[in-house]
Amino acid sequence: MSDEATIYRDKPLRVYLDDAASGKPAPGGGSVSACAGALGAGLVSMVCNLTIGKEKFAGVEEALTDVVARSEALRARLEELLQEDTTAYNAVLVGYRLPKDSPEQQTARSAHIQAALKVAANVPLEIARVALDVCRLARTAADLGNPAAVTDAAIGAILGEGAAQGAALNVLINLGTIKDEAYVGACRAELEGLLAEAVGLRAEVMAITHTKL
Amino acid sequence: MSDEATIYRDKPLRVYLDDAASGKPAPGGGSVSACAGALGAGLVSMVCNLTIGKEKFAGVEEALTDVVARSEALRARLEELLQEDTTAYNAVLVGYRLPKDSPEQQTARSAHIQAALKVAANVPLEIARVALDVCRLARTAADLGNPAAVTDAAIGAILGEGAAQGAALNVLINLGTIKDEAYVGACRAELEGLLAEAVGLRAEVMAITHTKL
Q1: Between A8, A14, A33, which is nearest B10 by CB?
Q2: What are B145's strand-pairing partners?
Q3: How close is the nearest chain A Cα to the Cα of B169, in Å?
Q4: What is the DSSP string of A13-37?
Q5: Alpha helix positions (H), chain A
């Protein structure tokens, strides 16, 4: 854990890949899931950008202008979350290092850890939510976008679903140590519905894509 | 199409994401699939790096030392393919711009295009093959690696499978315009087997992961 967090967005792509492969605490699977989601959101934007302004797609221009505004917002959010996830667990690690000699210290340490674990779980939960939105937009892009770019819409859905699955696992690993049962139950229920929708959207987008290949 | 290709590995992560989202010809879905696969390979390496050198995992140290050597080689290859895919289609575009005024010119143009299309299809085919290998190594990492990092092995498999699926779509889109039926048939058969194995591995790794969460 360094004092100055590396701002990965501004570093060479190879630095992000190298650090993910290393034994360093960050970036881990949560951040990498956000990165995959950002790549997927980018491909949805690409489909829109390869459609807008072309005479023969004038009928869908308004719809895809709306989609690209939203996919670019999702991409910006995932780029933030890619970074946030690299530090989300720091507060948990700080908590584990707190003294636990007296009962008071033990209570304070446990409260710190429990609060930090929820914050750490909320980051991948948000990644999963945004990644699902990527899948939803990929569905529209596959339907309405330039058919020459339909595979890019499909890869957008594939990476959106993968990002949601990966982020969900990072929520679940944190839930195992969170004692607030209402919070744990709500997270599990939300993830279940969210992943089912993402899986369904990926399958729909793949089916649309195969009819246009 | 620029004369000097951007070497994305050395550019800030945001440049790769921004260019993928733009209407520029590259990077497209093939390159982005290779990038997702490289991220997956990196996570497999991370699991190994979080296992090797720890007393309690001494029994799997030799196996995971072998895995990390292989996952780092796959990552290096996918980082190359991420770049190669950005230029693989250039030769096809050059072909389409060749003159077609005489029958001789038409024949030469068609031969150029057909050869370039196979080269362009071979790049994502290679991405899919390497991505499948990422899934295979993720399976071993999930089985043998530090259970605290099992979700990273799972995300490695998720991104490996996604990379294989995305790359396969980019092969298929090229196959539609390739006239060599033997080549097309061989590619389709290889992709079918490859994707079935990747899907199976992702499901296995997810199942292993859920038992360890």
Answers
A1: A14
A2: none
A3: 6
A4: HHHHHHHHHSSSSSS-HHHHHHHHH
A5: 13-21, 29-49, 61-88, 90-96, 103-144, 150-175, 181-212
Q: What is the Cα–Cα distance from A57 to A76, expressed in whole angstroms?
A: 27
pLDDT in tens, B163-205: 999 999 999 999 999 999 999 999 999 999 999 999 999 999 9
**Is the backbone peptide bond immediately before B25 cis, with ω within 30 degrees of 0?**
no
8 A C-beta contact, residue B102 and residue A40: no
Closest CA to B16 of A66, A17, A135, A166: A17
In this structure, the dihedral spanned by the alpha carbons of residues A59, A60, A63 and A69, taken in order and rounded to 10 degrees, is -120
The SS3 of residue A175 is: helix
- Over the range A182-200, which residues count as b (16 or more CB within 10 Å of their CB) and which as e? ebbeebeeebeebbeebee
Rg of chain A (C-alpha set): 20
Reported as a single tens digit per residue, the pLDDT across A87-135 is: 888 888 899 999 999 999 999 999 999 999 999 999 999 999 999 999 9
Model's pTM, two decimal places? 0.96
Tokens of A31: 């951040």
Residue of A14, A162, A176 lying closest to B162 (CB–CB):
A162
A33 at B interface, C-beta within 8 A: yes
φ/ψ bin of B53: left (φ > 0), alpha (ψ from -120 to 50), beta (otherwise): left
User: Are B49 and A9 inside 8 Å of each other by CB?
Assistant: no
